[in-house]
Amino acid sequence: MARSPTTNRYQALIGRIFEDRYTDGDIAVPFEREDLETTAAALDIALPRNLGDVIYALRYRIPMPQVVLDTQPAEMEWIIEGAGRARYEFRLVPLNRVVPNDQLVTIEIPDGTPEMIRAYALDDEQALLAIVRYNRLIDIFLGIATYSMQNHLRTTVAGVGQIEIDELYFGVDKHGCHYAIPVQAKGGTDQISVVQTKQDIVWCNQRFPGMRVRAISAQFMDDDKVAMFDLTVEQDMVKVVEERHYRLVPAATIDRARLVDYRD
Fold this sequence. Notes:
about 260 residues, alpha/beta, Trna Endonuclease, Chain: A, domain 1, 3-stranded antiparallel sheet, about 35% strand
């Protein structure tokens, strides 16, 4: 496969792996972690120490290479899923995008984020997780009491392999129902992941069978807004149960008329 100077090296690598294994009519194309190393050597592509970054980039940050896109039927798309320890597969699924709805009203919330966090957050994802945590946006969005348990939780899902949950919360409502709440956080350029949502839900159901699972995604938008999504999976597609947009502002700047609107 010819590679132009502007072609992303990860795209070139994944494109060659797919091209070498795909046959017309396939809906699943398996490959292994070691294929990343052997193919990178053949293409003279430098790999990161963390090979998982290649998969992460293709899932969330950059589009699939053209050689993959050219095989997609209308209304279908290729995704990369885990298929066991150090195993993956390209899988053809219905086109599924979760993006903020620009028509939703924006709710202003008094900003409780410490200035030190805003000054020294290392990246968009860490900043967003901190903003969600310090402003109790999970509690506000779901209407229950929640508690952050761990962020960047690396664990395994049976039949899938290793996954990473951006942050895991537990919650309880007024009826005493307990919740497991996996949260994925995405910066403005990253896409909310169908794969990650499915894996988070499956892991919570396996690990905490007596709890109710609420899969939450948070994403930065323009104008300092945060979009919050309550997601579920139906017929192998991620669906939005509820969506809200919040803007964090100094408490003194909130229009009193808007507070009356919120009350009503």
